[in-house]
Amino acid sequence: MIFFIFAVIAMSSPAHAIYSSTFSLSLQGHEFQPQYGVQLIFNEAAKSRLLCSAACSQNPSCRIFDYDSSSHRCRLFE
């Protein structure tokens, strides 16, 4: 099962560097296909979709991530 998630991260105040994130789940079986290969910034294993989303949230460059629950593959994209 592949979950494809859009994470939109917006800085709410440049002086305080506070970030907020929103995400939505796509149907199972969908995988993000970036327009350019350089958009991939992380490709590692994660134990859960939640940990993959946390990795994206902690990376200021991350805008989109996807997670494959069968292989535990977590990919972060710009």
TrEMBL record:
A Pfam family it matches: PAN_1
PROSITE patterns: PAN (PS50948)
Keywords, ordered alphabetically: Signal
InterPro entries tied to this protein: Pan_app
Residue ranges of every copy of the Apple domain listed in the record: 27-78
Signal listed as a keyword: yes
Gene3D superfamilies referenced in this protein's UniProt entry, alphabetically: Hepatocyte Growth Factor (3.50.4.10)
Signal peptide: 1-17
Superkingdom of origin organism: Eukaryota
Coiled coil location: none
Protein name: Apple domain-containing protein
